[in-house]
Amino acid sequence: xLAYGAMRGPAGNERFLDLLDSDPREAENKYRVLRAKLVFYxxxxxxxxxxxxxxxxxxxxxxxxxxxxxxYAGLSAYCFGIAEHILREHRRHPRPEELPADIPExxxxxxxxxxxxxxxxxxxxxLQGLPTNDRQILLRYYQEDxxxxxxxxxxxxxxLRIRVFRIKRKLxxxxxxxAGVARAGGLK
Length: 188
Known about the structure:
The chain starts with 9 loop residues before the first helix and ends in a 5-residue tail after the last helix. It is mostly helical.
C-alpha cells in the first residue's frame, strides 16, 4: 500500500485512492503515475524538494474534497492546476537554505591583504589621484549610457572604451603604487 505519508495516515490514503479509481490496484497504479509526473514537474522547474511539493498537492486535494469540490476536468488536471499554484508560491516565498554548521571566518578579501573597508578607502584615494576629467569619464562610463557619453565627448564608442581602458590602467597603477603603503597599514 502507499507509504508516502502525504495524506495523513491510511484513511487519507484510502480517500485519495477512491478519488482516482474504484479498483484499489488500478487506483494505486494511477497514484504512482500521477505522483511521478508531479515530482518530475517540480524537479524540472528547479524546486528543492519535489517529493514534498507533490505530497502537498494530494493534501490540498483531500482538503478541497471535504468541501465537495467537483473535479470537472478530471483529478489529474486538477492536481496539475494546484501544482502551478504551488510552484508560484514556492517561487514567491522560497524556503530558506540551511546554513552550514561551521561558517568560516571571513578571510582576506584581496591580494593586497586588505579587508573590504580598506579596499574601498584605497580605491577612493586612488580615484581622487586621477585628473578630474578622467575620474568623471570613468564614473560616468559605468553609470550612464555609453553611446550618449561618447556622443557628448565627440568620440566613437570604441574610442570611449579605449579611453576608459587607459584611465583604468592609470588607476590600477596608482593602486599598485599605494599597495606597499596599504600593506604596512599606513593608508593616507
